[in-house]
Amino acid sequence: MIWENKLATQLQWSAKISNLEAKQKVADKVAERVKEGDVIGIGSGSTSF
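Predicted structure:
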């Protein structure tokens, strides 16, 4: 993923992200289905990493 906002590339989490591999797999599956113009709602919990 290419971030246009430089702030997004500098984000850091204060703790280890739990279940990182599983979360990345879910993100990859979602990314496969997103089309131009789609709107995706994301919460503020650690799953939205």
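Summary: The mean pLDDT is 79.
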